[in-house]
Amino acid sequence: MMKDNQKEIFPIVDDEGRVVGSATRGECHSGTKLLHPVVHLHVFNSQGDIYLQRRPDWKDIQPGKWDTAVGGHIDYGETPQEALRREVREELGITDFVPEFVDKYVFESQRERELVYVNRATYDGPITPSADELDGGRFWTIKEILEAMGQGVLTPNFENEFQRCFGDYSAPK
Is this model's pTM higher than 0.85 or not? Predict the structure, then answer.
């Protein structure tokens, strides 16, 4: 069975994203609340649907739920832009996309604190979800996402971020 590498080294950052130290994935996800940076990419198609990945059942955070198209930790010594390109290639097999920066904020759960760099892209090309990292994925209409909110189908992180960054999509027309 696959498992996250608990010894992987993450940068520890301040609220502005300046590196102030390092810690392992295990330390960062154990309730220490060490602030570590992550990148997210929301992939929209030209019809306005949004691609979500299904998290594998073996993940240590939110197994089996639908989540942001791409989400990954920034490696120690890597810039947010480098991490975004690497994660999008690893998770979805996409290399020819134009990211648009949306927001940066601190996300906190019971287990961790993350400095989240949120990006979006419009993309209509082929998507090849990583069989090693994901349990597939698909495009969802905005209506499907709104109906799934609060039902335990989507990760709480995705629901909060979607409302924070794309709330105008969910406003009644």
Answer: yes
Query: Both tokens of residue 165?
Result: 């960054």
H runs (alpha helix) in 99-150:
142-148
Note whether 106 and 115 are within 8 A (CB): yes
Contacts of 18 (CB under 8 A, 6+ apart): none
Q: What is the pLDDT of residues 55-76, one digit of tens each?
A: 999 887 789 999 999 999 999 9
Strands 35-44 and 70-73: antiparallel
Burial 110-137 (b: 16+ CB within 10 A, else e): eebbbbbbbbbbebeeebebbeebbbeb
The secondary structure of 40-69, three-state, reads EEEEECCCCCEEEEECCCCCCCCCCCEEEC
CA-to-CA distance for 121 and 28, rounded, in angstroms?
Answer: 29
What residues contact 127, with CB distance under 8 A and at least 6 apart? 43, 51, 92, 93, 94, 137
Question: CA-to-CA distance for 115 and 104, rounded, in angstroms?
Answer: 7
* Strand (E) or helix (H) holding 116: strand 113-122
